[in-house]
Amino acid sequence: SKPVTEINPHHSAGSGVNMNIIRHPRAPALTIERWFNTSQPITLESLRGKVVVMESFQMLCPGCVSHGLPQVSRVYATFPQDKVAVIGLHTVFEHHEVMTAQALETFLSEYRIPFPVGVDMPSPDNDVPQTMLSYAMRGTPTLTLIDQQGYLRQQYFGQVDDLALGAEIGALLNESLSVSENTSMASGCSDGQCAL
Predict the structure, then answer these.
(1) Whether the Cβ atoms of residue 90 and residue 118 lie closer than 8 Å to each other
(2) Contact indicator for 25, 1 with CB cutoff of 8 Å
(3) Is the CB of residue 28 less than 8 Å from the CB of residue 42?
(4) Distance CA 87, CA 18 (A)
(5) How far apart are CA 123 and CA 129, in angstroms?
(6) Cα–Cα distance, 66 to 46 (Å, whole number)
(7) What contacts 24+ positions apart, CB below 8 Å, involve 179-185?
(8) I need a surface site. Which of 22, 123, 150, 166 has the fewest CB within 10 A?
(9) How far apart are CA 176 and CA 190, in angstroms?
(10) How far is CA 144 from CA 68, 81, 169, in A?
(11) Closest to 44 in 3D by CA, of 144, 157, 125
């Protein structure tokens, strides 16, 4: 995905300086047929202010069952839920006849998956479901990180190292704190930056 340029929202319009900042693309909306493990549907807008860790998986994907889902279950248990939202996305692109909602419900119970899981909406003219298409995923497992402002920050196909993932989540949490701290800075320069 290509970064886009946006006008810095902290720029004063009357200063005559055109300050642009490079931003990552806005994460596409989730197109969900049904949710499990939550009392109400979830949108990315409802998760703003949190880092979102989204694990896209299929029940019959060996890497999803052996690594992806256990990893995000550890993320869910480790990070505070008011700062990090973990969601699953069941993205069925093969074996449609056996990966039904009823089978998924049993799977989630048997594997004790505690976080919300959405069933990706099937595409009318494609075997690949809609959210999987809009995120240009290559398969499962796919782990996606979305920052607190709703921007797509990272996407991994396959296995991700636990320590690296934890560091990335921590950096995204810290980054948003840095943005808040920088907005209240007085104008002038310090060792690492100059503010308006």
Answers:
(1) yes
(2) yes
(3) no
(4) 38
(5) 5
(6) 30
(7) 182/10, 183/10
(8) 22
(9) 20
(10) 11, 17, 11
(11) 144
Can you tell me whether residue 142 is helix, strand or coil? Answer: strand
Residues 53/75, Cβ–Cβ less than 8 Å: yes
> Strand runs (DSSP E) across 49-141, as ranges?
51-57, 84-90, 117-120
pLDDT tens-digit map of 16-32: 333 324 577 899 999 99
pLDDT in tens, 48-68: 999 999 999 999 999 999 999
The enclosing H or E element of 101 equals helix 101-110
Which are the contacts of 183, defined by CB distance < 8 A and separation ≥ 6?
10
DSSP letter at 44 equals: T
Amino acid, single-letter form, for residue 65: V
